[in-house]
Design goal:
Helix content is about 70%, strand content about 0%. It is an all-alpha fold. The protein folds into two domains: about 1-35; about 40-105, Up-down Bundle (AhpD-like). It is built from six helices and no strands. α3 packs parallel to α5 (about 75-90) and α5 runs antiparallel to α6 (about 90-105).
């Protein structure tokens, strides 16, 4: 099961407002879906980052880029993902993602 998020994590910030959503996120999404054996966590991270980029979800992308690096995806691979998706999800989504990736990469 996923480790408990820090008190400053996005999940912990929303827990007082939507406690059931926080519980489902921990138990179902990260405790079950992310633990299924059909895909590696590394592959799940690539898929999730691609979806969040394409759906223009910058706040969630930030955390999942960090998770992707923790799951073994390289900075170069994430850069390629952003470049590749520019042609499928649009240039603005890729440029936004590049800025977020820059922030995440600089903090590591």
């Amino acid at each position: 099961m996923a480790s408990s998020p820090s008190s400053s994590s996005p999940l912990e910030r929303i827990r007082p407002i939507v406690p059931k959503l926080a519980e489902l996120t921990e138990k179902v999404l990260f405790g079950d879906v992310w633990e299924r054996p059909g895909l590696s966590k590394r592959d799940r991270s690539l898929i999730t980052c691609a979806a969040l980029l394409a759906l223009q979800r910058p706040d969630q992308l930030r955390g999942h880029l960090q998770r992707a690096l923790d799951n073994g995806v390289t900075k170069d691979e994430l850069s390629e993902l952003i470049t590749h998706l520019a042609f499928y999800s649009g240039w603005p989504t890729a440029v936004t993602a590049a800025g977020i990736a820059k922030e995440v990469f600089e903090k590591r």
